[in-house]
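Provenance

Sequences were taken from public entries as deposited. Structures were produced by running a predictor on each sequence independently, with no templates supplied. The record for Nicotianamine synthase from Artemisia annua is shown for reference.
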Amino acid sequence: MVIVIETDSCMSYIGISKSTPEIYEKLSKLETFKPSKDVDNLFTQLVRLCIPHSAINIATLPANIQEIRSKLIRLCGEAEGLLEAHFSLILGSFKNPLHHLNIFPYYSNYLKLGRLEYDILNQHYSTTAETPKRVAFVGSGPLPFTSIVLASYHLKDTTFHNYDIDSIVNSMASRLVSADHDLSKRMVFHTANIMDVTHELKDYDVIFLAALVGMNIDEKAKVIQHLAKYMALGSILMLRSAHGARAFLYPVVDPDVLQGFNVLSIFHPDDDVINSVVISRKFLEPVNIDNNYDHLDIGSLMASSCKYCDIQPFNHPLGHMKMIDE
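Predicted structure for Nicotianamine synthase:
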């Protein structure tokens, strides 16, 4: 039984429990999730269902809805990957792809998102260095826009190490910066499972963990545990998460899995935003890591008290990245 208090939460729960199985059934019948009218329409319906504010506790949903949620997250991840691969191939056909990034329909949002994440990082990054010298992005994909934007406009002296498990994806991504004299030197691409990367992790001042690295709470917790073991003391870990009904689109990062880290802030979205952002710092002293995640409550994300940061949304159903810091 699901107990709800707020009227909007009740309506959200009814809508989620009724509509998500219907959308999932339609999506599961598609032959491919490559960009097309049918794919865009179905994911647009899903996102519009999940965007309205609600206080839904994902952990209390019935087992059948939990199963649908897990499957939808994986479908969203697959569709997002195919969308990025499609545009990466187009951009890679140009002599200098970086001169044509604006053909990606949502590139302007990455510019705004990069500024937001840079501002957030500035609030919490405190070492003898003014800016981080080495940054890693885990799960960079075929369109490493986060690294490109941060390297181009905000962290101009920083080296970015991009990790992806797929060698073909990395080849597509590296093609985007290969013709640029500056970024080709400061953007490094590693084909590796991050779980196999160990002592190299201590070399990074900041590590970004993509939302789709670790598709459920157990997988995500194992990755975070691995990072906690090998990251440098005092280094920053930035993660993307989800809250409320948006957790039907992306995995949730519960603060309880961040053993070994001090959670600095949790940014939740507002209006038509999807991703939350969790910023944490590895403890300055080593701690014991608990490998048991059975106690985790994936609906327990709590917001910290921060200033408002605003990014205007864009149109693609899987790409709304406007965020506010609660």
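Helices lie at 7-28, 37-50, 63-92, 107-124, 145-154, 167-177, 183-186, 217-230.
The radius of gyration is 19 Å.
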